[in-house]
Amino acid sequence: MAATNAPEEHFEGTDFDEDADEDQLVSTNAGRKRLFSKELRCMMFGFGDDKNPYTETVDLLEDLVIEYIAETTHRAMEIGRTGRVQVEDIIFLVRKDQRKYARVKDLLTMNEELKKARKAFDEIKYVGNEGKLK
Question: Mean pLDDT of residues grouped by 10 in the chain (134 residues)?
């Protein structure tokens, strides 16, 4: 099984039939609801693009993002517990890319801090409501 997965992990030197991929992209994504258009437009503007980028550009970028997410998810499902994606699997996949690894760690740390802050806020709110009930 490991021998068959090796070519999938190395993307740089792989030759693709570009025409076949483009046809597949068009056929699979035609009619699909755009999930990230607004966010991608804002990101593109933030990175120096026009305030109103071409719809085709946003659509292409969204197709690339969706493809990356799907690919990463499929790879993560093959690691660890087969058929399930866990945080550790994503960390394992991005461990060699320092920028992605650092961003994942930052996001996980921020998530934990938000959880703690929400819990503390809820406890204060709960204690405040208890005093009013008496």
Answer: 41 39 44 87 95 95 96 91 89 95 96 94 76 54
Is residue 61 within 8 Å of residue 87, measured between CB atoms? no
Total count of residues recorded for the chain: 134
Tokens of residue 61, six digits: 């970028």
pTM (whole model) above 0.85: no
Give the count of beta carbons closer than 10 Å to the beta carbon of residue 89.
18
SS3 sequence of the chain = CHHHHHHHHCCCCCCCCHHHHHHHHHHHHCCCCCCCHHHHHHHHHHCCCCCCCCHHHHHHHHHHHHHHHHHHHHHHHHCCCCCCCCHHHHHHHHCCCHHHHHHHHHHHHHHHHHHHHHHHHHHHHHHHHHHHHC
